[in-house]
Structures
1.
Amino acid sequence: MMTLKKTGFFLFCCACLFSCISLHAQQKDTLNKPVTKDSSRQDFVTRMQDFAKRSSEKSRAEFDADKATIAQIKTFDGILRTMQKAKIYLKGNLDTPGIKIDIKEIDEHYAIAGDGVFTNKGTAQTFRNLTATSKILAQLVNKANARKLKLDVRQQELNDFRYQLDSLLSVPALFKFPKDSTTLMKYMQKIKLVAYETVPIDSALKQASNNIQTLLNQVNLTVFKLQSSLEEIDGYQKEMASHTYKREFNNLWAPQSSYRPFGEILEFSKTKGLLTLSFYAENNAGKLFLLILLTATSFIYLRSLKSIYKESNLLKTDFDGQIVLRYPLLSAMLLATSLFQFFFLSPPFILNVIFWTISCFCLSIIFKDYISRYWMWVWRMMVVFFLIAAAGNLILQASRMERWFMLVISLLGGIMGLLTLIKGHREELKEKWITYSIAFMVFLELASALANLFGRYNLSKTLFISGFLNVIIAILFLWTVRLINEGLFLAFNVYSGQDKKLFYLNFERVGKKAPVLFYLLLILGWMVLFGRNFPSFDDLSQPLQNFFGQERTLGSYTFSINNLLLFIVIMIISVIVSKVVSFFASDRNVSSGKDKTERQGIGSWLLLVRISILCIGLFLAVAASGIPVDRITIVLGALGVGIGFGLQTLVNNLVSGLIIAFEKPVNVGDIVEIDGQGGKMKSIGFRSSVISNWDGADVVMPNGDLLNAHLINWSLGGNRKRIAIKIGIAYDADLEKCRQLLTDILNNEERISKNPGPLVHYEQFNTSTIDLSVYFWTKHIGDTSATRNDLIMSIVAAFKDNGIAIPFPQQDIHLYHLDQTGKSD
């Protein structure tokens, strides 16, 4: 077709050339002839114009046909590619049967969660049942929304395929048919083939879309049902919080208005409790793993600390002041579970019971034969009462049997608490604050019994568990603080390489009495765990949560106080971890009996480890808080300007610190000498390093000065040093015997290296002595002074025994007397 276009264009050009030649000839004739009208010339021009017009239209038509052909080819290729992708996508079917099973399982769990709230309501709702149901429904909503999201994505992708096919099949170029009959037949066959392949794919996409939509409608209904139920429970909880003292049941001695078998109540409570626990554990698997990791780390540290004290014979038989080292594993479990439980947000009560039970078990073993028998009996009884109350609190629906059970236990607990306070033995208490929690327990248990008698079930149950829980948490936290305090104090005693105010606490004042800060944190934690048992706790804490979680705008940057606090907390943890690593990698104050020549394994790599910890902490803090990276770029740019103008010295010291860390010209623990002053490298910091000189002072030297100074590092040569002792002997001494004596003395000294061996050299004839020098290498530079001292003593003794004199400097004066004649006598 392009050839025809080119031929037409060539004929059109020839015709134009021929017309031009003819017109030129006619113009020549007109010059010799008078001007007259020529009809034949006009006819020729008209014909040429018609010919040009027809040629132009023909060329335009051919161009449009070529353009349509190219568009048709591209469209057919797009249709084929889209159909191929659609086929592959349809083969990878979404697990719709699995989603149907999940929806069915969600409905089953909804029925379990609704027992006692939407079905089998009984006379009144209970706070614990509402809380458990709310947590289960929240997890079910999350699951249903996750399935809904998958279905929405699938539906969107199916619609996209159908839209792409419809768009390609409606391209206008497909409907421009060739004028040639043969070409038209071939084109129609191609369209028929494409239509034949497209129709099944389009039908399959449509069918899949309908199936997804049907399933999506079912999921949407489930989500709506769950969310409506959550809103209804929220209404129940708010009503319960606002009517704390409302009567729910008749007086305990009055006839029962409704009845549900107690065994059935226990069964559905167990099922609902385990379901809540499984959901929460599944969503917080990472935190549970961190809890195990923290326990293992604490155990390793406490075990190593105990080994140090045992090797140093510092471990007491009664573990007074060292109770944290008695059972390192149990201490680690107690510390980890007591502290890390606050990282679990809104945990189910059954998980808290597991944590508290583990802590009680560990503390009971630690207490054995450490506290008095009387208080050990009190502790065990408190644990038994708490476990009974916790088991009762896991029962999610009220019953007359449970109410009588609560009444008996609360009265027994109150009576036991009163007897404990009356009987005394307070002088045997390790922590005096325990008596306050016992007195508070007595008040709560008696109030619980009174509320129970007059039908205030929810209030009675809250006071019932809170009374025993208050004592258990108080004792656990008091001893947690005590064990932490002991661990830090014991670590301070055996580690001395770093700053004593590592945690911004004065460790010299840490002893049996913990810092006030620890007790303030204890009270705060006690208030949180104690308050969770009351329905109004969420209402009181919600405004505070909203305040911290509300997004605020500063310019174009949106932030919340939670994000800022998260950033600060992560950075503080990074700094503390960095300092802890530095602290516990330093030299031990207590000798462990190992060889003094042992080099520290971490050395100057400590600085790189600290930098890595801080960098990782900064990255996590920025990522967790959502701080925009472009803002950080602006800050770094501003810092760059500041560095260029006024921070050259600081940057020089920081860079020098990195160079020291990488090149390691000096290591922590090395014996160094700078400008004639010797000492031991104590630490290498970001900006400066600390050198302990032989006088006991710590010299703080900027890293830039340290790197530029003429540094002598004795430790790089193996901590050896060559010593020279100069001796002068009398001229009449036996030189060979003297050499042999000195050689024997040097060879018998164990602190002198045998390779290279010692040397004895006679050097010169002095005024009154023959001078010799003894050269030898000490195995360790720390033995230099003692070895020189002992050798001088041995040499003097050996020379005396063998009659070798060490003369002192002397001069002979000769006097000459002159007579009167000027001659000497």
Note: Confidence is low (pLDDT under 50) at residues 1-33, 496-512, 587-602.
2.
Amino acid sequence: MSEELKFGRVQIHPTRRQVWVDGVPATLGARAFDLLMLLVEQRGRVVPKAELFAKIWPGLFVEENNLSVQIAALRRVLGSNVISTVTGRGYRFVAQASGEGEAAADAAPAGNLPVRLEPLYGREQELIQVRDAFDALSCVTLCGLAGVGKTTLATQAAVQLAAERRYAHGAWRVELGSVTDPAMLPQAVSEVVGIELDGKRDPLRECIAQLQHRELLLVLDNCEHIIDAVATLVDGLLSRARRVHVLATSQEPLRVPGERILRLNPLEVPTSSHDEDATAYGAVRMLLERVRAAMGGIFEPSAPELVEMIEICRQLDGVPLALEFAAARVPVLGLAGVRSRLYDRLRLLARGPRTAPSRHRSVQAALEWSHQLLSPQAQEVLQRLAVFPGGFSLVGAELLLGEQGTEDGENLIEHLNVLVDRSLVTLQPGTPPRYRLLETTRTFALDCLQAESESGDGIDWQARHAQALGRLCLLAARERDSTWMWQEMPNARAALAWALTAPGQGELAVTIATYISVVLAAGGAIREALDHLLDVQPLLDDDCPAPLAARYWHWLGRLGVEGRLPSSQCVEALLTADSMFAALGERRHRHACQRHLAEAELRAGRAERAEQHLAAARELEQTGVSAADRMRRLRVEAMLADARQQHEEALRHQQAALALALAQDVDRYRLLLMADMAWTHLQMGQAEAAVEDFQELLQHFDDSIRQGLARARALSGLTAALVAAGRIEEAVASVGDSVLALQQANLLRSRCEVFAWVAAAAGEVQVAAQLIGAGEAFAAQSETERDPISMLACRHAMALIETRMPEPDYRYWSAQGGSAGETELLGLLGQAFPGMQADAFDGGYA
């Protein structure tokens, strides 16, 4: 083969080993060129992979992905439609050479698939799954909610299948959205495929009989509104028309034997607004291209605009139809304007293409199409479940709906099954599983619920939601299931916000605030937990049940330690709780109060009182408490020993407590105790050992906020240990993570001295002086003494400051720091350590 070959845009010069595309020389490696020539020479057939390996890499053993890499390189240069993958067999060169067009056209199968295809974004894996499924099956159904992109994917897959398999009688797409009468289905299919029904027999049977001897691909698009009729047709085709392949799109499965169901989720979206690889996500790529089209093809987003695009994608859950409408609004509103108006998304996301089906001319219309296909009972369940802002469990749904929401639990499960099948509710696998409505679907359902309420059903579903969450908090606490409670946190926050302002709901508000504070605190979000407790404090009255009030005062005092509340307020709250628990005969809770009182007194610098409360806790243990409670008491014993500079004794207590934590599988306390032991090593002057301890400890953490408090202690400990070891650059680099974790745990001001030490060691003595002043003010305001680590850090920071700053200057700058709020402290830290993460300055809760 020596003459020049032309395939559309591509010219190949075999003797010169050159390839030109659109008249421009293209760069190909030697292997890629050899592979191309082999495929061109064999373009009348599928070339198996084994043959390609044998001829391109003769006598060599190579990994299979080498072939994939070379094929991908050819497609990048020549275009994606030149080389076709025949799943499970090999590759075929499918471009037409000059002079072959007429013969190729004659051989081309019939069909009505479009010539121009909508691009796919982020659906590469699903496309492969559809094509591969037909290797073993004859029917594939793409399921998903309205507007998720089922038709686009099905059309792309059909075009590729038709090119690869060369169905003798073509590939045909039947759009069923306009077929309102199920009896007309056989006629609609027959008209598209080009067969005639004589009308003498049952149309369905005659249609199947006519197709029985054909080899074709039938794409049945939008089946959900006549699903039973489509299922009957497909079942007949699968039984009697063995060479007919069916690719269906529907909001629910056909449920016929031999069907493969592929559920199409929304496009993937970034998890963070500042994701550097945002355009790698299908949703962002799609929105970007649609905005470009709307703006006349010229649009390159700036960094702030890319953040707006990410947030639009996240708020719209990556639903392609919603992204289409959002992009259409950008030329008038801009990206920021579109994002700011998503609260009114059902009105904003309208005005689709004039040629689109009516159900796709607005998001509202698409959802109404799905909604009207539900039974009245399923519609009611969907609307009522929309009051959950953070997803829900089956138990939560049962608590919400009760007797008025559904006849019984079995009916609820049946309705949920329908809603999940039709992709109106998303199943999130887990133990137990959870469910959620995409936010746009939820907005639509809430609008329907409001209209229902206004029509006079007499039920306040927001109140029902709050009451359900109150009962759920009690149930989760009784089962000691913090994971379940953490999953319900968005719902609990919404319920609490409602109960705080609703007349007569004080007990409900106190219940929710008290029980979620336990989970929030364990996760390190102590600031939020304490704020909730303080918000409901005015609602405590004589009518509040004693067990609830006792738990409230216990947790207020417990979370207020370490300077979050004045020590006197913590001690008063814990004494109140202890007295109430004594009256209730709850010995275990009294034990907790005594050890927390010991910790509060210790933080206030009253070691003798702390010892008295620890003695009371030990006495309560004589009549029996759990090993986990003894572990917690031993940890406070170690704190007391550390405060008295009895570090060896502190280590013994910590080791004993750690052994109990391991035996009881109390993972959170295991991490806290490991951090405590590293702190003790640091106090003993073993800085490098402490660095190793903290670095090893940080390997045990995941990204869950449930480990937030232990992570905050470990990160700040690592910063202190690094500066103590003289590893200043590493200490500076660690500040950002430490600040963020401490801020989330409401511990930032209690660790000012650690950052003062780092700042002074890095030469930022003015900032160090202000941080020392902030630490002094914090100790005075919170009625606490500096803990041993803060005293150690303060001592070293002051030694450095004294050598570099005159005394009058120090007094001035420390006074400035003493009057600074947390926002100003964050500004100071950002000034001294410019590399800190931006997230450390958001001031929000985790």
Note: Confidence is low (pLDDT under 50) at residues 101-108, 404-408, 837-846.
3.
Amino acid sequence: MSLPPGFLDELRTRTSLSRVVGRKVTWDMRKSNQAKGDLWAPCPFHQEKSASFHVDDQKGYYYCFGCHAKGDAVSFLRETENMGFMEAIDALARDAGMQMPARDPKAAERADRRTELAQVMEEAVRHYRLQLKTAAGAEARDYLTRRKLSEAAQDRFEIGFAPEGWQGLWDALRARGIAEDLILGAGLARPSTKGKAPYDTFRNRIMFPIRDARGRCIAFGGRAMDPNDNAKYLNSPETELFDKGRSLYNHGPAREAAGKGQPLIVAEGYMDVIALVGAGFEAAVAPLGTAITEDQLRLLWRLSPEPLIMLDGDAAGIRAATRLVDLALPLLEAGQGLRFVILPEGMDPDDLIKLRGREAMAGLVAEAQPMVNLLWRRETEGRVFDSPERKATLDKSLRAAIKRIADPSIRAHYGEEIKRLRWELFGTARRGDRAGSGFRPGGGPGGKWRPATAEPLPATRASLLAAAPGDEVEDYLREAMILAIAITHPACVARFESQLETVEMRDPGHERLLNALIAAAHEGAAAADSAIIRRKIEDTAGPDLEKLMGLAHVQSAPPVRNAANAELATMCLAEELAKLEARRGAVAEIEDAMEDLTGLVDEGLTWRLSQAAEARHRADRSKLDDTSDMGEDRAALSAQLQRLIDGAAWEKKKR
């Protein structure tokens, strides 16, 4: 449905964002100014104690300085209530006393027919529920008792029964005055090919109503009571109400539970969902008798950013998992993935909960595997990689799978994880190699030669190289400088908060200091002097802070020596962040490009390498006039860092 021009603007004008948000948060009145529409509260999107969630009621906009969630009243309802766009608009319009725009006549006519079909479906629900309580439903009731389905569960999921007979439901609905075309249109009956009256779609089956997100019954799933029936489970045919590939069983209740923080679990069938909900896992859904479709996958991601796919541990379950991996790879986005819960072979969720209890299921849910593990398992399980050709085949198939990921960041992280798993498989030496022979001892096929580790010389044990092992000396120096400037000039933290939160500190001590620095800033210490913020950091990372500020290149840095020059600190911090990002980006791009050198080098690859080099070069150029006093200080700091980096590299080669 399209909205007329100006409708959204008027809706936003009439909507009080603080009123909408206020239903979900408790305002911090010490920090808020209600008269000006300036309100603060702990963020409803992540766990915190401080009030970092800000609402500007006049602008109708919210922002969290902790998790960076942002948006307006529509996005707030969509995120907190798991609503669709039009659902959120409708809810806000009702709250504001606005009439939703009328639809065009044809659309209204179609909506009226769907409403009528939904009413027919509700009549069918009542009919099937009643039949379960009659003598004809005795066998079905016994089956449900054997499956330990309580009366409460049967009522909650509105389980019913379709008795044997060709026209039981048809006659009942016609007796209530329901038109034939509506019964046929709802998929409850099928026309006869022999010129007789239409016959019921479902006969001698336990009936499970399927409802959409709004709670309307749109279809049924029927479980055959006759073990010789060709179809154990039968769904309604597709109708104006029901699209099997776009629907989920238990959609509405699961959406509500997922919005309250419960994990979204995707099981295989109706009984699995009922068992999970009965055990307290209320955000459980199931596709409708087929493999998960792309539309269903996108629907799942609207309910939860990381659904848990629960599959049987047998061969069929693993095949289903790997098919879903292939479907999901091109659709992955940051914050949008899948995890997998593989059940013990021969057990479904109902079996596991009954035999081992809820705790066993909770344990499996907590240990859900990331999707990359399923991809690796598919390519390696049951195979032997005892030759270069077989290893190359594995590399080729994995590379082809990873290239299907559209998001470059996720693709890079998949590549890193695959490299790690590959190292675990191939990277250790053969048994029997002596420790001093240049191989690392350990089991596994296809060892890789590595030089024996040399102990550092006494003169270098306390050097910068010992503090920053490996080849990332430059990173260590720049990380230290970034932290030292930010700690000395706390006012810079707010300006560079988003960059500081996303920068990856590869030294563990630096990571602890960064976390302590950001935490102090969120507590309001960023406006105070450096002595206050240092005391706060010392509470959680005292030894790391002492080590950082004791580094020679930190002590002699102009922005650290001159704590009063905030402008110099701002420019130096910006420069160091830019250089660190550019260096790491260039390295990542070159590494990625080198992987592509398995084929012919093309113009695109050459261009990527040149762009990586240019990005590094741009970051190294000074944007200020070095003839000014401030430029000289910046130039001195850059030159000092470069000398340390160059000297460290020379010293490493010498060792």
Note: Residues 251-380 form a domain with the Dna Topoisomerase Vi A Subunit; Chain: A, domain 2 fold (CATH 3.40.1360.10).
